[in-house]
């Protein structure tokens, strides 16, 4: 059965590959959500005037991979203690958010967030928001599957802080 999940965790370029390569993932779409302007462009979102954040919409087969598993993978792609952006990407358009579409997703996300908080992996509080799904607008084609289209630039973005963070926090 196909289902969807929407996660924001900094630059959407770096959020696609960790999900795209998993069994049960049908598609990972880069886009914008959480704002007040219909059909925003990348330039508009970058202007920080639309209220949108960069996000990925994951279409997955829930018989192969669960929403809970996706949430657990999400936490390992972000710094859940930084509400002002992610790594080298700063500002509201890069804020960490789990967008939930129903009460079941909300319960799973909140329980996972509490479990992460209780683990004491982090010295600071977990500030990632859990919000209701809002309209999701696909980003321009050149943003889709960026890690495949421009692997060198993707690697530079990933090494700009995200990978170093994952190496220190999650490998303890």
Automatic annotation (TrEMBL):
Domain Peptide methionine sulphoxide reductase MsrA: 4-155
Active site: 11
Enzyme class: oxidoreductase
Record EC number: 1.8.4.11
Record-linked InterPro entries: Met_Sox_Rdtase_MsrA_dom (IPR002569), Met_Sox_Rdtase_MsrA_sf (IPR036509)
The UniProt record lists the keyword Oxidoreductase: yes
Molecular function GO terms recorded: peptide-methionine (S)-S-oxide reductase activity
UniProt keyword terms in alphabetical order: Oxidoreductase
Membrane found in the keyword field: no
Domain of life, per lineage: Bacteria
Reaction equation(s) it catalyzes: [thioredoxin]-disulfide + L-methionine + H2O = L-methionine (S)-S-oxide + [thioredoxin]-dithiol; L-methionyl-[protein] + [thioredoxin]-disulfide + H2O = L-methionyl-(S)-S-oxide-[protein] + [thioredoxin]-dithiol
Pfam family, one: PMSR
Annotated family: Belongs to the MsrA Met sulfoxide reductase family.
Free-text function comment from the UniProt entry: Has an important function as a repair enzyme for proteins that have been inactivated by oxidation. Catalyzes the reversible oxidation-reduction of methionine sulfoxide in proteins to methionine.
Record's protein name: Peptide methionine sulfoxide reductase MsrA
Species, as recorded: Apilactobacillus xinyiensis
Classification lineage: Bacteria, Bacillati, Bacillota, Bacilli, Lactobacillales
């Amino acid at each position: 059965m196909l289902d969807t999940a929407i996660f924001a965790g900094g630059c959407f370029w770096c959020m696609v590959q960790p999900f795209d390569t998993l069994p049960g993932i049908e598609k990972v779409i880069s886009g914008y959500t959480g704002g007040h302007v219909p059909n925003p462009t990348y330039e508009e979102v970058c202007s920080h005037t639309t209220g949108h954040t960069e996000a990925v919409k994951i279409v997955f087969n829930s018989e192969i991979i669960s929403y809970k598993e996706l949430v657990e993978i999400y936490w390992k792609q972000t710094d859940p203690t930084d509400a002002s952006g992610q790594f080298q990407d700063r500002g509201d358009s890069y804020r960490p958010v789990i967008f939930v579409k129903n009460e079941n997703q909300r319960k799973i996300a909140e329980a996972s967030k509490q479990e992460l908080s209780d683990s004491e992996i982090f010295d600071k509080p977990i500030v990632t928001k859990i919000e209701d799904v809002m309209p999701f607008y696909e980003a321009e084609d050149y943003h889709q599957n960026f890690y495949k289209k421009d692997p060198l630039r993707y690697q530079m973005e990933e090494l700009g802080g995200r990978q170093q963070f994952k190496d220190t926090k999650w490998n303890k």
